Amino acid sequence: VPTSGTSPQPVPHIVGGAAVSSFEYTFLARVYMYMSGTTVGFCGASVLTDEWVISAAHCFEGTPASSLMIGVHRHNVWSHRTYEHSCAQNIRVLEKHCHGSYSGNAAQGNDICLLKLSSAIACSSQVEKVQLDDGSVWPWSSSAPYNGGNAITAGWGSYDQAGTTYTTTPHKASIELYTHSQCSSNFASAGWPSTLFSSTNGGMLCAGNVGVSEPSPDSCNGDSGGPLFVPVDGAHVLVGIISWGSQ
């Protein structure tokens, strides 16, 4: 939750979190841009099926599907050619389907994109498929969310508040989910429109750690497109996609 009314910015890496154990979240994927033989990782994603991943639309503005690769069953991503596990793959993207109502401004919602892989994941049984929330984990209401409101975000983004220092292995942070009335109240007090989290504004939710001393655990640069998820009965349920923040 922002503490000042600054412009929304795509969020990069995990600040103030903890290291993810090797292949702890095998649904966590890395997005690469492939150009002229050079591959650069820049966003996160989540594996939905053997051929589809989900990420944030703002990651792919002006970028054709043919320039994208998805790293699956990856952990140390120092080099896209260094595979630390026999099931690690980088798979080219065949199709990109971003939300038709995404305006180019993440703060207006609909910041979501589906990517179809050019080939199925080879080690399907080794790669978890994240589950989508049916509304029972994060209800669109003013009631308290599942698990007391705690969710996890993870990614390869920056781990300092300046957003300049990156890691080669993913990190995670436990952050608090807020109801929509709490989101509206917190953001309005920071100078944002009170309608930012209305039911008609692109299906956004907010999360953070209000009242925690800085740097509080949260997502940062490079984490965009990655998951906000809740562990439920041994599975991982996707309740949101990392989109934007004010700091």
Automatic annotation (TrEMBL):
SUPFAM superfamilies: Trypsin-like serine proteases. Pfam families: Trypsin. This is Peptidase S1 domain-containing protein. Keywords: Disulfide bond, Hydrolase, Protease, Secreted, Serine protease. One of its GO terms (cellular component) is extracellular space. It comes from the Eukaryota. It is found in: Secreted. One of its GO terms (biological process) is proteolysis. Residues 14-247 form the Peptidase S1 domain. InterPro entries: Peptidase_S1_PA, Peptidase_S1_PA_chymotrypsin, Peptidase_S1A, Serine_Proteases_S1, Trypsin_dom, TRYPSIN_HIS, TRYPSIN_SER. GO terms for molecular function: serine-type endopeptidase activity. Coiled coil: none annotated. The keyword Transmembrane helix does not apply.
